[in-house]
Amino acid sequence: MYRFLLTRQWVILTLVALLLIPTMIRLGIWQMHRYDERSARNQLVTDALSAKPVPVQGMDSAGHTVTRDERYRAVTAKGHFDTDDEVVVRRRTNSDDEVGYHVLTPFVLTSGKVLLVNRGWIPANGPSQTAFPKIPAPPRGEITVTGRLMPDETTEASGIKDLKGLPDRQIMLINSAQEAKRLGEEVLGGYIAQTAPEPKGDSPELVGRPGKEDSALNFAYAYQWWLFAAAVPVGWIILLRRELRDRRRRAEAEPVDEVPAAVG
């Protein structure tokens, strides 16, 4: 009765089912790993947002690599802005997905070292991609700024190509090592996304508050894949029972050949 399992159709069906089960289990495990990673990042953001600001000199130094635990940490710095060496970062979007620039301004600390400050987003200057945009001026004189500590941007981490031959005072990536070469100064590693003081007239648009990732979706997807994996053998058994039932019905419906009685 079970010889049909050796037919080509059922052999292929069984092999596909055996392949799908471990694949779906692995996909569920991968989604759980993504859930753990995103939850850990969200916790780092929560901890950073709730922590009190600390002086940047205690968190950073020239050539320092901003660590995963230091990212988003609120820091303060005392000094003055150097708008003469200000640049804009191309192809950056705001909360409404409008394309414009980030304003990157060197901030000269009282120690003489330079801290890169992302002052926020401004819209593009019409269709022109070569003209330097009009940028609202920062406060003059010695001030204290607060911002979120961020690591240097790289092509590998951001996916943004570091294009060469750009118009004057325009860059693609915020990288302290590259800016140190351009400025000829001692630049602290990484940069800060300014959160205070808030600009007059709401421009540039501050970008210092990080968003959280939706880790709950990964958690739901993991269990979804595992439910799919459990449904595969159930479906295989249902098909098997249906096939057996159909074969029994066909066997019962077949006429029985009568054996002629012997003449004697």
Query: Could you tell me how far the N terminus lies from the C terminus, measured between alpha carbons in angstroms?
Result: 39 Å
The biggest beta sheet is recorded as:
5 strands, mixed, barrel
Q: What oligomerization state is this entry in?
A: single chain
Secondary-structure-based class equals: alpha/beta
SSE topology string: HEEEEEEHEHEH
Q: Could you give the order of strands across the largest sheet?
A: 2-4-5-8-6
Shape descriptor reads elongated
Q: Total number of helical segments? A: 4
Tally of strands: 8
Average pLDDT score: 88
Helical proportion? 25-40%
Q: Whole-number radius of gyration?
A: 32 Å
User: Uncertain regions: pLDDT < 50 for 5+ in a row?
Assistant: none
Name the beta content range: 15-25%
Whole-number count of domains:
2
Describe this entry's structure for a reader.
With 264 residues, this protein is an alpha/beta fold. The chain has 2 domains: 3-41 and 215-247; 53-202. It contains 4 helices and 8 strands, in the order H-E-E-E-E-E-E-H-E-H-E-H. It has helices at 8-50, 155-158, 176-183, 215-253; strands at residues 54-55, 74-81, 87-93, 99-109, 114-123, 143-150, 170-171, 191-196. It has a 5-stranded mixed barrel. Strand 4 and strand 5 (114-123) form a beta hairpin. Helix 1 (8-50) packs antiparallel against helix 4. The longest helix is centred in the N-terminal third of the chain and has 43 residues, at 8-50. The two termini are 39 Å apart. The model has no long low-confidence stretch (mean pLDDT 88).
